[in-house]
User: Fold this.
Amino acid sequence: MRAAFLYQGRKGLTVETVETPSCGSGEVLIEVRACGVCGTDVHLSEGHIPISLPKVIPGHEISGVVKQVGAGVSTVSAGDAVIIFPQIFCGECYACKAGSEELCVKPLIYGMNVHGGFAEFISVPERVVMKAPAQLDFSERALFAESVGVAYHALFARGEVKPKERVLIVGVGGLGTNAIKLLKGVPEVEVIAMDTSQEALDRATKLGAHAVDPTKQDPKAIIGELTGGAGVDLAVEFVGRAETVKSAFRLLKKGGRLVLVGVGQERPDFGPIIAMASSGKSIIPSFGYSKKSAQELLKYVSDQKISFSDSISKVFSLEEAPEAVEQLKISSGSAVRFIVQPTRS
Ligand SMILES: [Zn+2]
Ligand SMILES: [Zn+2]
Assistant:
């Protein structure tokens, strides 16, 4: 098969021909139809994240069709359209056993220590394979495999969003946009979206959210007006900067919940502990998504008929995978989603 490799100590990807992976007992061999190109792939190809194999295939936002199943596999069969979990959780540690597979203490990470989806085929354990929703195409399913799943888990599993709540979305890139789309299925939720890019704000407005640019407007005043001075019930932060995290916390009502999804190295200062304690506000980190969230999301997307096709900016062939990663590196705006299609139906 053809596959794109990262080499230890070398920048960029190289496409080459290697043997098609075998399908062992308990494993599923998948023909990869679409694999999202993510910022993580850029960091890997630039050597910012070390890889632990001499050469490895990156790509962790994978959808495809089951080609073959190994002995003992019972949940999928040849011909099924599937989505693969963005990491291979072990299924045995305390986190996996508690249903928090996203917090697995010994995961295998595609592109670091296990081969990923920039290849015609991939062989993975059955536990990380999910049947795909029929109404989405393969590229949308690849997005689903990570960014839609992450947004769903943050809103529903961690944030426990409820009908009629006022929800603040901080950062309307890919994840934030998915979050606003997903909130359409929650009755009478009012969404306030905060971003500094006009393109992002327009996207939010088009999806029915109140758009706020904190560099031009006072978010506290606008949210105060919308909530009778109280603040929002739930804020979900997708940016990962100290300033935006602090501002999201400040815009919560007393007892409100702040879910942290965006990642970064900065350190937010929440002020005196007495003020934090007496506010009753919760800070809830959210990372990846669990198998339970994925299963709920599969049903939710089918019931709500949500489409994600407009999130895809460009499609590349497998031979063009090195170029896709290179282009993502120089493109600005987190809403840009590139897809590599290693095989076509
Ligand atoms: Zn990713
Ligand atoms: Zn585990």
